[in-house]
Every structure is written in structure tokens, then in C-alpha cells.
Write a structure and sequence with these properties.
The protein is of the alpha+beta class. It has 2 helices and 6 strands. Strand 2 and strand 3 form a beta hairpin. The longest helix has 16 residues. This is Bona fide RidA/YjgF/TdcF/RutC subgroup.
């Protein structure tokens, strides 16, 4: 297992890494919707979903992976009433990246770090 670190995604805010490679898989930690350049988080839940997915993709890219390599996502949302907007942004991300939709779980949580509305983790596979 090898850890992944990139400046193109937010740094870990605790004792964990942005992602790891394990065999032919790359597994990301949950990605908050923090813009790695500005360190800011958008207020809009759909923009947060897109930023979280872009952060996850930035972790995959150093290993030569793209959105079409993502086979599973887990979406954590603060409020399932936002599911429709998150779902639209999620769908558009995969369309814009010319990728099939992966398997997905979506769960409502009581609270996310930094009071984010969304956090997304992904598993990608080479080949």
C-alpha cells in the first residue's frame, strides 16, 4: 500500500492521507468541498458536490486514473432534502468527464467536518 499526496486536492485535516493505492485500486479518503487553491468552500450544495468530486479526481490523476476508472462512490450529505441537487451535480460530473456512472451509496449524516454539506469518497480501479 502506498499513500498518495497531491497539491491539487485539499490536504488531510487529520491523521490520514488523501488516498492510497492498493494493488490495482486507488481509494480516496472522504473529500470535503474545499477548493485547494483558495482554501474556501462554496456555500451551494451542488457546487460542494462538484468540488468534492473534482478533489477526488485530482487524487486519482497522479496514478494515471480518470473519472471512468471510478467504480464506487460514497456520498455523505448533511441533509437528504438536498439529494436532488447533489444528484444533478453528480450526474453532470460524470457526463462532463465522459465516464459511466459507478456504483454509489448515499447517506445522510448528522454533521461533517468544517460543517460541509457534502463529502465524497471514491474507489477507482486500473484497467
Amino acid at each position: 500500500m502506498k499513500s498518495i499526496s497531491t497539491e491539487n486536492a485539499p490536504l488531510a485535516i487529520g491523521p490520514y492521507v488523501q488516498g492510497v493505492t492498493f494493488g490495482n485500486m486507488v481509494i480516496t479518503s472522504g473529500q470535503l468541498p474545499i477548493n485547494p487553491e483558495t482554501k474556501a468552500m462554496p456555500d451551494d450544495v451542488a457546487e460542494q458536490a462538484t468540488q468534492s468530486l473534482n478533489n477526488a479526481l485530482a487524487i486519482l490523476k497522479p496514478d494515471g486514473l480518470v473519472a471512468s476508472n471510478i467504480v464506487k462512490t460514497t456520498v455523505f450529505v448533511k441533509d437528504l432534502n438536498d439529494f436532488g441537487r447533489v444528484n444533478q451535480a453528480y450526474e453532470q460530473f460524470f457526463i462532463d468527464n465522459d465516464a459511466s456512472f459507478p456504483a454509489r451509496s448515499c447517506v445522510e449524516v448528522a454533521r461533517l467536518p468544517m460543517d460541509a454539506k457534502v463529502e465524497i469518497e471514491v474507489i477507482a480501479v486500473r484497467g
